Amino acid sequence: MTAPAVLLDASGLIAAQRQFAAERDWQRFHTPRNLMLALTGEVGELAELFQWRTDAEAAAMADEPQAFERLQEEIADVMMYLVRLADVCGVDLDHALQDKLHKNALKYPAAGRE
């Protein structure tokens, strides 16, 4: 499997988050541990949107304006904390994604390509 040149360019989000944190003097709070705990909380809020819904109801959230807005917000929260955590930990997300996709392709080959 040949990986694309760039899978994810999060540089704009990284820069925006760095600026947002700096303007509020929040860098001191953005430790890997604190960011991981915040990320876990946001994933919980995302999971709550799906709790007690059937698969069909979950798939139909796009048709419910309020539910869809909350879905977008929670996914954005998860993404922002994940990207911030990667930045603080020095993880190059594009490299990490390319590496993991390559490893997954080797571990789980497509049918008939073993």
From TrEMBL:
This is Nucleotide pyrophosphohydrolase. InterPro entries: dCTP_Pyrophosphatase (IPR052555), DCTPP (IPR025984).
